[in-house]
Amino acid sequence: MPELPEIVALERFLAEHAVGAVVGRVDVAALSVLKTFDPPVTALSGRDVTGTGRWGKHLGLDCGGLWLITHLSRGGWLRWIDEPSAAPPKPGKGPLALRVHLFTPEGATPAFDLTEAGTKKRLAVWIVTDPQQVPGIARLGPDVLAVSEPEFAGLLAGSSQRLKTALADQSLIAGVGNAYSDEILHAAKLSPFATAKTLDAEKVGRLYAAMRDILTDAVQRSSGQDAARLKGEKRAGFQVHARTGQPCPVCGDTVREVAYTDKSFQYCPTCQTGGKILADRRMSRLLK
C-alpha cells in the first residue's frame, strides 16, 4: 500500500509532469472505481491541470477547480505512459482502472493510469469541487509530518488502541500505514502491542523522533524517483517489514510476524518486546 512518502513522491511527479497540461479523454476501465457520479468524469476533459494535492494517503489533481482525487488503497498504483495507445482500453481487462490522457504545452500526449493488482478491488476515485467532500479526507486526523510532539503526545494519551493500530489509524494521525508503522516501532524499540495511552514521556519522545526520522528519510529517498521505481525504493529501506524469518539488521535476532486474516506485521523480539514472542490470532492468547 502506498503511504505518505510514496504519495508525496507521486504528487511531486504529477506536479512536474502533469501541471500545465490539458486533460483529454478519460477512460474508465473499471466502473466500480468511481465513487462519485456528479460531476461526471467526462467533466474533466478540456480542463487545465493547475495543481496537485495530498491529504494523508489521498492524492489529488486540480483540474481548474474540479478535483480528481484517488486513494490507491492496498494494491493500487499510478503509472505514467509517454505514448499511450489511442484505442480505449477494454473494460475489465487486466489491472487498469482508469486512464487520464493529457495534452502538454510542448505538444506531447502522455497519460497516466490508475491500476490495481489483486482480486480485492478497493482503489477509489472521486470527482469533486472540494476535497473535503471526500469522506475519507473529511475524517483525517492531523498530517503526520505536520503534527508537533506535544500534539502527538495528546493524541496518544487519548487513545486506548495498541500502538500498531494507533499509528495506522487515519482519523488519529494521517499518512502512516502498515509498512511504515512497523519500521517506526522498530526504530523506537517499542512493542506493537503496547497501549498508546500508557506510554510515558520518554517513550513518546522516542516514538515521535523515530516517526519523523523514518518518514523524512523515506521522502528524501523517494524524491526524484519516477513512479515505476518508487515501490522498489520503499522496500529497500525496510529493516523489519516484509522480512519475516530474516535476521534483524540491528541485533541479529529473527524477525517475527503477527498474521491476521488479510494482513500481517513484523517486529524484532529483542529490539522491541524484551525477547517475548507476540502471539497472533492463530494462537490461544496475546502476550504483551
Automatic annotation (TrEMBL):
Ranges for the FPG-type domain? 239-273
Q: GO biological process: any one?
A: base-excision repair
Q: Which CDD domains match?
A: BaFpgNei_N_1
Any single Pfam family the record assigns to this protein: Fapy_DNA_glyco
- List keywords of the entry alphabetically: DNA damage, DNA repair, DNA-binding, Glycosidase, Hydrolase, Lyase, Metal-binding, Multifunctional enzyme, Zinc, Zinc-finger
Q: Name one GO molecular function term.
A: damaged DNA binding
Tell me where in this chain the Formamidopyrimidine-DNA glycosylase catalytic domain is found. 2-118
The record's catalysed reaction(s) read:
Hydrolysis of DNA containing ring-opened 7-methylguanine residues, releasing 2,6-diamino-4-hydroxy-5-(N-methyl)formamidopyrimidine
Q: Which InterPro entries match?
A: FPG_cat, FPG_N, H2TH_FPG, Ribosomal_uS13-like_H2TH, Znf_DNA_glyclase/AP_lyase
- Report whether Secreted shows up as a keyword of the record: no
User: What is the similarity comment for this entry?
Assistant: Belongs to the FPG family.
Instruction: Write the protein's name.
Output: Fpg/Nei family DNA glycosylase
> What is the originating organism of this protein?
Nocardia stercoris
- Supply the source organism's classification: Bacteria, Bacillati, Actinomycetota, Actinomycetes, Mycobacteriales
